[in-house]
């Protein structure tokens, strides 16, 4: 495991030099500021957290390790379009919030095991289809983007606990019974 949290480290990070057996890399709350390549991550990697740095450039999420369960790239300076259509089936949590990512997003081909997806505070736009979210999805954060249009919220997974849509132009009806245990837990 690589754990470099809050060390105020600057400079660049070359992920291709990670040991082939590493399972978790946490390089967060630093001042790293290079572009990064995710294509050469070790196959054994289960968690990668590069949050709260100044990494920049585009993100290619198409060739992530098959065993990856958590990917946190939030609070950086990544830009450009990003595809969510070829994520590894093992991925449970993806945090891309607070960057400058653009374009539309496809939420209909997310991994079945995904529970948490954070896309907030970016420059995403277009319509959003939430009718085919993974059955275990618990948290979906789309707030503070330029999403717009009528959205069918009638098929949200029963596992959904939090749905954040603030500061978007999405419209539609959300049925309370769609939230499974969310409203039951609020009354306990």
From TrEMBL:
Cell compartments where the protein resides: Cell envelope
Primary localization class, coarse: other
Superkingdom of the organism of origin: Eukaryota
Matching PANTHER family: OS06G0587000 PROTEIN, POLYGALACTURONASE INHIBITOR 1
Protein name: Uncharacterized protein
């Amino acid at each position: 495991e690589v754990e470099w949290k809050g060390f105020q480290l600057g400079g660049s990070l070359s992920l291709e030099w990670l040991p082939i057996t590493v399972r978790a890399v946490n390089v967060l709350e630093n001042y790293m500021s290079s572009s990064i390549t995710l294509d050469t991550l070790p196959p054994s990697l289960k968690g990668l957290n590069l949050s709260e740095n100044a990494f920049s450039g585009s993100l290619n999420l198409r060739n992530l390790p098959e065993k990856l369960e958590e990917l946190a790239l939030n609070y950086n300076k990544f830009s450009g379009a990003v595809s969510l259509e070829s994520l590894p089936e093992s991925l449970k949590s993806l945090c891309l919030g607070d960057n400058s990512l653009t374009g539309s997003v496809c939420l209909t081909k997310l991994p079945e095991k995904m529970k948490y997806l954070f896309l907030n505070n970016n420059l995403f736009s277009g319509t959003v289809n939430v009718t085919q979210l993974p059955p275990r999805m618990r948290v979906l954060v789309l707030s503070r983007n330029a999403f717009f249009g009528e959205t069918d919220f009638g098929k949200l997974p029963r596992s959904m606990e939090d749905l954040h849509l603030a500061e978007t132009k999405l419209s539609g009806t959300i049925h309370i019974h769609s939230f499974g245990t969310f409203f039951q837990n609020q009354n306990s």
